[in-house]
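Hi W.,

Here's what went into the run:
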Amino acid sequence: MGRYVIRRLLQFIPTVLGTMFLLHYMTSLAIQFSGNPVRALFGDRTPPPALLQAITERLGYSDPCLSQRGNPCFGLFIDRLQNIFLHFDFGVNLRQREVTDLVADAIPFTLKLLVIAIVFEAVVGIAAGVLAGLRGGSFVDYLVKISTVFIISVPIFVLGVVVREFVGVKFGNILRGQDWIPDLISVGVFTPGFKPDYPFASLLIPGMVLGAVSLATTARLTRTSIMENVRADYVRTAKAKGLTNKRVIGVHTLRNSLIPVITFLGVDIGSAMAGAVVTETIFNVPGIGRLVTMAARGGESSVVVGVVTMLVLVVLLANLLVDLLYAVLDPRIRYE
Amino acid sequence: MRGKFLKVAVAATATAMLATACSGGSDDNDSAGQAGGTLRVYASEPAFLTPSGGDDEPSLYVIRQLFRGLVKYNAETSAVEMDLAESVESDDQKLWTIKLKSGYVFDNGEPVNADAFIRSWNFAAYAPNAQNNGYFMKRIAGIKDVQSEDPDGDGPKKAPEPKAKELSGLKKVDDLTFTVELEEPFSGFPTTIGYPGFFPMAQACVDDIAACNEKPIGNGPYKMDGSWQHNVAINVVRSDSWKGEPGKPDRIEYRIFADVDAGYSAFQAGELDVMYTLPPARYKEAKAQYGDRMYELPGDSFTYVGMPLYQDDFKDKRIRQALSLSIDRQSIIDAVFDGRFTPATGFVAPTFEGAREGVCKYCTKDVEKAKQLLAEAGGWPAGKKLTLWANAGAGHDQWLQAVGDQIREALGIDYELKVNLQFPEYLDTADKKKFTGPFRLGWGPDYPFLETYLYPLYGTGAGSNNSLYTNPDFDALLKQGDSADSIQAALPFYQQAEDILGEDLPVIPMWFNKVGAVYSENVDQFVWNAVSDADYGAISLKQN
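Here's what came out:
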């Protein structure tokens, strides 16, 4: 087990370096082909060359290789690696703020959002899947099947905007007109976006939207898995032994049925991060996703490289944890 | 509970209004709206909150409440009024003497004296400080010495240290008096210093600019309540140390949105009191829904189609006139922009003092005249396509295509669009004068003086003269205006200069924007300043 973990951790190194180089190369190419992003800060006003030069230098875009199209800028990449790994310096954005500060500001919001999304999709998804799986062909089964198809087929940016306009604004306005409903519900939860006054309540709906698509997949996965395992030999044996239904379902069936679901949820942390890019922009959540979107739009290479590298690490760690959880859930799996 | 509060507030104000009507409204406090309450406004993330750094709209909206400068602008007429300055005077329009009112202090107790201004302007101008508003110090004598020259003009790794640390044109006379020497005479100087780039900064702020950016040490009617919560909110409260006219709301909350649509939803949900801009796609809807709570007026942002005078095809002014005559601006505005612009008939925003209608005789559609002018000029080279340029990803291709279609229909000149360059590269192309055909660009004023629409864009050798237009008569008139005795005396010269542009058409004027803002039922009196836009400190809320 220990050796396995160490081997996996060592594999992180080439993965992270490779990702960083790709990001570095892509952002450098973007600058080489679309021009110095610092110039765009001034817009229609042509800045004096000395000032433009000074600001370009301050922001780290002055390397001459950034004006040679196609040049992979190895020198700049090495500098960047040194700054990041030796000095823990991720650079600054176009507004001269440290990338580490930006991330530190943004990460609590994204974490809260992710926790809400994952809990929502795990609890509701698994419950719906179990109910549907145990009674195949029943009303509940059809309800789950139809509603999940519906959710899966709506892209998240459509779902997000629809929920914001109809749940946050229209339905919320009706609630806000009723005096008997507490503020926490009418102003906090049913809001069109994140609110500093209700830092948790106002994230509930965005979190649910973020979790919705994966919730559908979770429910369907659980349903299929349960249906398969209910007919398995060991379940029949357990029933034949005279165990209570609760124990047969809860321990024997569910535990084995959840292995693919756990894998999915683990991998889903990564895709939820990607979904957060959309959800956070729609619901105005000042998290990592919104940060990356804005940075990519503005051509802030240091922010893109820094933040995406951190995201890659998160995904890698999440995957490692999922693999280790496997062994816990399924005694047949052992890591040497 | 807001719902309840609102109803009470509305009822209370209705009674209050009746009462005021009876008493004749002689009380000063009533006519100007009552003080108190929390104003919640839409904002996007500012770039910087220091006067030397913030040059974008969201920054300026905050800085203008935290800081105050030498002069301010009249909300309706945009005329210059003294704020912290007692007087701003000059005999030759080159050496300006500025006297300050006494008794003003920063939030940290430092006095707002001559040093505070000199310090701030020097800090902005010194190139290694990399402050965006260094651009605005360009008229002050000694600016070249604080900005290092690029030896080979090609961006070397390290620029040499500038020759001087301070602007030689700024001299302190006594604690409350200082002089400003300009490189060239400029009669409009008093209008420029109301821009936040010229606001004072405390010594403590310059010493630790990063900390000051997070929690600015201001000298204005409001001060920070807590630090800048990046991407979330900025809260300011009324400042006790401010000696001038106090702000109306007790507190202003700037809620920061990354997306204007999300902001509009928050407004609809009753979370915001003022939204100074609207999502373009919902402009019509907002107008229908909010009616008299929508504020609409002509803005000052100018869109033009520049003419590359450095290309042979565009050297003859009759060609440029013919192109301009074939465009029906209003039909494009209606079809593409839902009427959110005003067609330009001149080069200066209609809200500016000295602006006139119909300066450009070639800015309304007249196909016959266009054809005639084109024929006189010897026609367009046969088979050559007109290349229309715009930057990518900003929706300009749509209206530019309409322009191309109209030109093709009127003059039979085929066109192609070149709209694949991203903004930085597009601007670089403009700076390097590499456009091969008409190009889209815009302009916003730096100060409320019509010169801001003239010299920077069309003066010989001026920074943003992207057409490379040069006309000695035009330059001479600007010079006369610059050294006129007063702002009023300068206007006729600038107007004559604008007339020359109307004939020469170095650029084809397209349109000026319209400002659309909405405010909530909580707002009693909405105040929009002709120069500095929504004036949050002057907006009063309904009191109960």
